[in-house]
Design goal:
Length: 287
């Protein structure tokens, strides 16, 4: 059995479509017997999936991945375990023990796991929303994107607003276009889909329902913990945004929604979950 991990200096590289290296583990009797690091030899999910197939890889462990890449891997016969972070060797060991479960593309890592305020601490989460936060909301089950720009590096300017006209994000205000690989799961689904077949210089206006953006709020993502079991939480207040880490040391952002003398309740839903979003998108460059 062979397991591949998107690899960067000992850790799991978070963008499958842009990974430059894979670490390949040879496994026998549920134990790693050897490993090697290889170059990716190509860009785009089709080329990467074929590379893994050529290496007779059975399982891929990675971080963020889009629907198109998942389809390419499935066609190549490679099992996918997505949403992993941290040390590559530890992730493989966790997989072999049955403790690493695929979460799909950039979905929450905390479901069904113990929560702890670990080495990442209860640090403050950056305020403001960015449309480059990954494809939340069940992207694992989405069909593959098609279009002339899928798999290519795109640079776009954009302005994002809510239905009442309030602006929540703008690359124009920052003075720098947003760069991403179209269809690689780095963007929310609806944004990716809008750019997939645009021409350079074209400007489009899109209205995204929650299912095309950050999904609907998940009631199971709201959870309560004992303050005594969560060092560092004593001084937190309702409304604060912080990071927790799960049992694998993977950080995820949460918002404090309620606190009393003994317990504290967090909401791990994305702050844009359930919201309809509007974008004006200008395709600046395709590489």
């Amino acid at each position: 059995m062979k397991i591949a991990v998107t690899y960067d200096n000992g850790n799991i590289f978070q963008h499958f479509g842009r990974t430059e290296f894979f670490k390949i583990y040879q496994v026998e009797d549920q134990k790693v017997v050897s490993s090697e690091v290889i170059g990716s030899n190509g860009v785009g999910h089709g080329a990467l999936a074929q590379l893994l197939a050529d290496q007779t890889v059975d399982v891929l462990i990675c971080g963020g991945i889009g629907g198109g890449a998942q389809a390419a891997l499935a066609e190549a016969g490679v099992e996918l375990c997505a949403g992993a972070q941290g040390d590559a060797d530890q992730a493989v060991e966790a997989y072999l023990k049955g403790e690493l479960v695929s979460t799909g593309a950039n979905c929450d890592h905390h479901h069904g796991e113990e929560h702890s305020c670990g080495s990442h601490g209860c640090g403050h989460h950056e305020e403001g929303a960015s449309c480059g936060s990954g494809c939340a909301g069940g992207c694992a089950s989405q069909p593959a994107l098609t279009g002339r720009n899928v798999g290519k590096t795109c640079r776009t300017h954009y302005r994002g607003t809510f239905n009442d006209g309030t602006q929540f994000d703008s690359s124009y205000d920052r003075g720098e276009p947003l760069e991403f690989i179209c269809g690689a799961g780095q963007m929310i689904r609806g944004f990716d889909a809008a750019v997939a077949d645009m021409e350079v210089g074209e400007v489009v206006d899109v209205h995204l329902m929650p299912e095309e953006a950050y999904g609907m709020p998940d009631p199971s993502a709201v959870f309560t913990l004992e303050i005594a079991q969560l060092p560092g939480s004593e001084d937190l207040k309702a409304g604060q945004q912080v990071y927790l880490s799960n049992q694998y040391g993977q950080p995820f952002p949460v918002k404090v929604v309620e606190k009393n003398e003994k317990t504290i309740t967090f909401d791990a839903n994305h702050e844009m979950a359930g919201k309809e979003l509007n974008f004006r998108i200008e395709l600046v460059e395709v590489k």
